[in-house]
Task: inverse folding
């Protein structure tokens, strides 16, 4: 047996849950990702998606992707830097810059590679990078790759952030990086306070709008716009994999920082550009969210309905203020069991266990889309209530 095989033969954590019949991962979907999806054998209500605008099955988005596939082919066979730039990549970057009210943007093939590449590059030796404890894994990985000193503060605890900032040299580059909407708990970063601290301690701020885009702010511009703080936030990151119904991501900022990243960011330069179909789909979704405000209005209508109903039924839903509703379970095994029982009852939700949350805070994540109906939400609430009561999680 080789070294690796010797080391990993005892990694049996997933098998433990498979044997117990509650393993919740890699469940294959055999249809489009609408509010109801087909799984092998049966249909389930989808409350595990990140497609907040509900556009992944939209005919206009699909047609735009098909046209791009026909015109440009299936891939770009190279990075943006060299042979992989299409006119639609350039158009998307230009339109996103206008939409986000920033000078310029760069589009990447995934949101993960935006955070990973940008953070590794934009701060370095002698600088400081300061993250919220609950920042997304892609921020954590970007932070780890940078040569800056890495610091963090307790989730959304502004006193703790100030304690960290106070100890740092006034003139050093200090970048605070936060999720605008925290992806598992659904709460928002305290941006007004963060911006006040940025001014006081001479820092820069980057906000990850993965879950804010298409949900918060005018026309879905995100949490920075929601708080009226776009000008105060130096860099804004977003993904196409959620509200923009595709795959890919972008960084938006001032022209000089973007110019630097365009020519040095390793995940931008040394990785193939986004596919024509994915790029065109994101562009079409961006047009739709700007032209159809009723989409986001409806998302908020069903979100408010779901928040009220879960509270009325006695679920513990934490500090969420978004279409991401955490239903706390506080026990890993039970979290898997609830996920399985919900699935059997026709409701797809996602289990959240460490490292995606603190060990004592396991939960199932219930997320809304703009095309959910109140009737679908009610079916979800009822099914989950029965399970949570039977399992003794709520009364
Ligand atoms: C907060 C946050 N940032 C970044 C990402 C990465 O985005 P993508 O899925 O587009 O790679 C995600 C996706 O899970 C996320 O939730």
Result:
């Amino acid at each position: 047996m080789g070294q690796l095989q010797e080391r990993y033969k005892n990694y049996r954590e997933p098998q433990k849950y498979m044997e117990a019949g509650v393993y919740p991962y890699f469940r294959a979907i055999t249809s489009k990702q609408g509010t109801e999806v087909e799984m092998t054998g049966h249909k389930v209500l989808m409350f595990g998606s990140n497609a907040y605008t509900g556009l992944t099955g939209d005919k206009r988005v699909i047609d735009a992707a098909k046209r791009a596939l026909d015109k440009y082919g299936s891939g770009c066979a190279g990075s943006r830097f060299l042979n992989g730039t299409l006119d639609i990549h350039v158009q998307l970057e230009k339109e996103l810059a206008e939409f986000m009210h920033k000078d310029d943007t760069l589009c990447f093939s995934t949101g993960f590679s935006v955070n990973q590449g940008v953070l590794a590059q934009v701060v370095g030796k002698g600088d400081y990078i300061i993250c919220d404890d609950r920042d997304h894994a892609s921020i954590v990985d970007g932070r780890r790759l940078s040569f800056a000193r890495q610091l963090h503060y307790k989730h959304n605890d502004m006193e703790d952030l100030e304690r960290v900032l106070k100890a740092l040299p006034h003139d050093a580059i200090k970048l605070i990086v936060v999720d605008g909407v925290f992806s598992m708990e659904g709460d928002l970063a305290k941006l007004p306070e963060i911006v006040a601290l940025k001014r006081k301690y001479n820092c820069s701020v980057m906000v990850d709008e993965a879950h804010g885009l298409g949900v918060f702010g005018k026309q879905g511009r995100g949490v920075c716009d929601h708080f009226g703080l776009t000008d105060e936030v130096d860099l804004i990151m977003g993904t196409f994999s959620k509200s923009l119904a595709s795959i890919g991501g972008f960084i938006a900022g001032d022209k000089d920082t973007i110019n630097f990243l365009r020519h040095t960011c390793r995940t931008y330069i040394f990785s193939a550009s986004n596919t024509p179909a994915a790029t065109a789909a994101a562009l079409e979704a961006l047009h739709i969210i700007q032209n159809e405000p009723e989409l986001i209005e409806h998302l908020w209508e069903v979100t408010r309905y779901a928040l009220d109903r879960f509270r009325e039924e006695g679920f513990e839903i934490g500090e969420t203020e978004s279409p991401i509703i955490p239903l706390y379970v506080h026990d890993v095994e039970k979290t898997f069991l609830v996920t399985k029982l919900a699935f059997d009852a026709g409701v797809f939700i996602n289990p959240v266990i460490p490292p995606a949350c603190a060990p004592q805070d396991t939960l199932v994540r219930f997320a809304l889309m703009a095309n959910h109906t109140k009737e679908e939400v009610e079916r979800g609430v009822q099914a989950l209530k029965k399970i949570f009561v039977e399992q003794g999680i709520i009364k």
